[in-house]
Input
Amino acid sequence: MVTESSSSSSSSTVPTSKGVARTLAQHHQAVVGFLFGFFVILVLYTTVSGQFGSTNTIVVLQSTPAEQNARASPPPQPSSPASALNNSTQDIIVHEDDVNKTMGGEHTQDNVLGTDKNNKTDANFDNMQANRTDQSGGQPVNNTVTNVSDKMKEEELIRQELDQDDDTNVKKAPRKPICDLSDPRYDICDISGDARATNRTVLYVPPPGERGADGQEWAIKDQSRKHLEYINKVTVRSLSAAQSLAAPECTSRHAVPAVVFAMNGLTSNPWHDFSDVLVPLFITARTFDGQVQFLVTDLQPWFVDKYRLILANLSRYDVVDFDRDAGVRCYPHVVVGLRSHRDLGINPTRAPRNYTLLDFRMYIRDIFSLPPDSIGIPYKAAASNNNATDGEKRKPRLMLINRGRNRKFVNIPEIADGARAAGFEVVVVEPRRDLRLEEFSRAVDSCDVLMGAHGAGLTNFFFLRTGAAMLQVVPWGHMEYSAMIFYGVQAKEMNLRDVEYSITAEESTLYDKYGKDHPAVSDPESIHKQGWQLGMRYYWLEQDIRLNVTRFAPTLHQLLRTLRE
Output
């Protein structure tokens, strides 16, 4: 019995040992499976979390305008704990909006840092959603992945990125001033970007990335003569970051540039009309090919009417009275002021497209629909007409301009007769401010010679043809230099003949008025040394001319021979 009992006990022990081993094996498999599964989950979690954080970082680098503004202009210090909390969680607000959009919720873009709803911002959020969907195998990322710790890490990365932009060790290129006051003749402001013009003031709203803590302001005279006392100033401001946020809203938007300039000053004198306004306006605005609008300060209605063809060709848009315009006009480009190289002149090396004064004369002739310049001066054009007989061939035509006030010819009939005796057809005119240039330009074009005393009437030489002559009578008082720099040089640059006749003291009415021993008659240099005001008084304002036709005759004969060559 003992033997049987031992045998029985032994046989029962074997099955028990096998059960324990099976149990241990199953437990081992469960532990290994659990560890393997945990490892797989950990790897997937780490990968997904890294991709999710990377996506957010890329979106911040692809910044919207508002975010660029935040980088250039750090937000102001919070005035309360609540505002501090709002400032510290602004980046998280963006991420939460994106998560809501990914989860299918309605997207509402908050006006964080002044951001407006726009297509560009919506596109950034759409790209974020698409990136997340692709990275998760076509399935939306579970919102629980973005936990509090992840958001804190993302916020810290973003904050470090912003801190790098604001680091004082990073040197940013200084903003280029939009106004240049260095030229001795004129001041100019050239604004490209968001320019807003209202009532003699032009505001420049810089892009968010260029805004600084401080703005800049200039006050310039918007014409080609910066030192004239009676040109009112126009204000130009480049706004700071804070000022940009409070900039006035546009009441009208324009797709073309604008040029701001003044019409007053010394205008009403034809020479100053061209030298101070029209030639500088040509230099400044011609390259726009009419696609520009003029904002005019101190607008002169007579000027607009007299030179309407020139103004309408340089600009195809209505002239705006900038003193009375109450709206806020927004332009992509604004130029304030007029560029000028010298008195009644153009320097090709400084002019756009290398314009010359000859180009300007051709431009004026084209605007006034004058005959092609290539046909030659009227006298030769008529002489080359094979259908005309010798009796029908006309003489060279001379236009004799008489001034109405000072430096006028006191013996006009005698001068006209002397010119006729020399072989010219003579036309006597006395230009007025209200003269219709359309008609007068054709009258000048029909002449071979434009004759007059040194003065504004000679400015009509712009209407002459190439090869025609300007005959300038130079008054007494050492005025040859003025005659040359104000008219002679220009005539030669425009391919015109420059002829000058300087009168003697006896041909000046100063001789009769003060006598031959007065310094103004006997010693003009002593007058000039006492200042330009005294020279202006005697030689520009008080003097008239009694031309000695006998002394003058050789000049006419020489001119006639030159025209016939």
About this structure: The two ends are 162 Å apart (CA to CA).
